[in-house]
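Task: complex structure prediction.
Instruction: return structure tokens for all chains below.
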Amino acid sequence: MPPPPTFDVRLTRARVLSPGVRELGLERVDGVPFTFQSGQWVSLVLPLSEGEARRAYSIASAPDGSAGFEVAVTKVDGGPGSTYLHELPLGATVRAIGPQGFFTRAPKAGHPSLFVGTGTGVTPLRSMIKDALAAGETAPMTLLFGVRHEVDRLYREELEALTAKHPNFRALYSISRPTPEWSGLTGYVQTHAESLWRELEAKGGGAPHLYVCGLERMVGAVRDLLRKQMGVDRKQVHSERYD
Ligand SMILES: Cc1cc2nc3c(=O)[nH]c(=O)nc-3n(C[C@H](O)[C@H](O)[C@H](O)COP(=O)(O)OP(=O)(O)OC[C@H]3O[C@@H](n4cnc5c(N)ncnc54)[C@H](O)[C@@H]3O)c2cc1C
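Output:
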């Protein structure tokens, strides 16, 4: 397979999505439309003080035929790559290589889907969900999004609006360190994955698929639950790990 293209991107927009997470709106400097499948990632080549380094970031936006796309970066304590991207000024350029990766979902895949993400692991799932809903996907889709605190719910307004608009989609949050006011799900996402999977199975429309993304511990736990304890076929389980 030929290597993915290399191109320069400019930071054209940035905003704080939650404490510790910065959204970057990047645009190809050559203006060429950026073609990718929802769920894929790009490698950013960063000129760090200790030398050039590459870091992978999932594409958070859905493919729209434009030269632009979004990523969301968690600031890792003492992490040189994420710190560089949190400090990158508007108008600056970096080299990108992509799209890359096989963690994808066709927008009209047609199968019921359980999306499980924690932290910025929700970003490729957001791309898949927006892509699917824009394409008119009618299969049921549930997003289980785990974060530590209520304020860490990235894209909350957008996900709530999508839940209200599309009867086949809903976003649920599980908060591991909730305030006393929180009345939704609590604890680690793996505690809720089985019941949400069974709900999707009960709706009919074919065998559900799992799309899980985040740090290794959570991804491994959810995969093991479905594959080893529930006996789900490996073809129905898709995962991406950040570490
Ligand atoms: C396919 C892929 C897609 C990725 N997509 C994203 C993304 O969309 N957004 C994003 O923020 N990161 C993403 N990452 C992680 C990213 O590539 C870097 O590892 C991260 O930014 C840390 O780099 P650093 O130089 O700051 O820290 P380093 O010094 O390289 O430290 C790396 C350590 O930070 C921890 N870490 C890595 N990513 C995260 C995270 N998201 N949240 C908390 N801790 C983390 C891990 O324990 C890891 O061992 C992705 C990684 C892969 C492999």
